Amino acid sequence: FVAYRFDRGFKSLVGAQMMVTVMVSTSLASMDCYMSTWVWFYLGGVIAGAVAIGLMRAFSRSRLASDALGRFDALADLEDEFDVDIVVLDTQRVRALAYRDAVYLSMGLLERLDDDQLRAVVAHEVYHLNTRSPRMLSSFLALTSLTFLRYSEEREADEYAARLIGEEALVGALETLRIRDRNERAEHLRYRS
């Protein structure tokens, strides 16, 4: 599986501060001004702050990583079980989607589901991959939270996941994730069996 991080804001802020500091200090140095000493102190502060924030984030990530290691092993097993690539998105928003030849799952989703519920969600998304329904969507729409799949396709994907993993796991995932139409979808699964 692949994990993506979306934390460009921090890097661009530190990069911009460093660039401005270097530009100002270069200008002051060319003017033969003694203010450049203060600019270098500022640059040192920016670098020290970046290192401190980086260390804090690394510590919190290592704690998260140790908690999530078991999850990542489970994802590797799911990749083998369903013969699919799984991509983990580092966001707390609950997201699961099938696009091209991969299943995309968010960290928020992984943290909320137990193993059987996770298997049910992956099976649901694999159904979409197998039927190629997301291929009808443009790249932009498929990677946003918008979905325009017909309700019947969602029901078929639910039925597929329930057959493979079990109705209880899928209904549990719908409940845990508070899917908007979870009651209707759970009722449909109970009615069909």
Question: What key phrases describe this protein's structure?
Answer:
single chain; 193 residues; alpha/beta; four-stranded mixed beta sheet; 8 helices
Overview of this protein structure:
The protein has 8 helices and 4 strands, in the order βααβββαααααα. By secondary structure, it is α/β, with parallel strands linked by helices. The chain has one domain. The chain has a 4-stranded mixed β-sheet with strand order 1-2-4-3. A hairpin with a 2-residue loop joins strand 3 and strand 4. Helix 6 packs across helix 7. About 10% of the residues have low confidence.
Major pleated sheet = 4 strands, mixed
| N-to-C span | 34 Å
**Beta-sheet strand percentage?**
5-15%
Contiguous uncertain segments of 5+ residues: 4-9, 134-149
Which structural category fits the helices and strands?
alpha/beta
| Count of domain modules | 1
Helical percentage: 55-70%
Write the layout of secondary structure elements.
Layout: E1 2-5, H1 8-30, H2 36-82, E2 85-90, E3 96-99, E4 102-106, H3 107-112, H4 115-131, H5 139-142, H6 151-164, H7 167-176, H8 182-192
Parallel strand pairs: 1-2, 2-4
Antiparallel strand pairs: 3-4
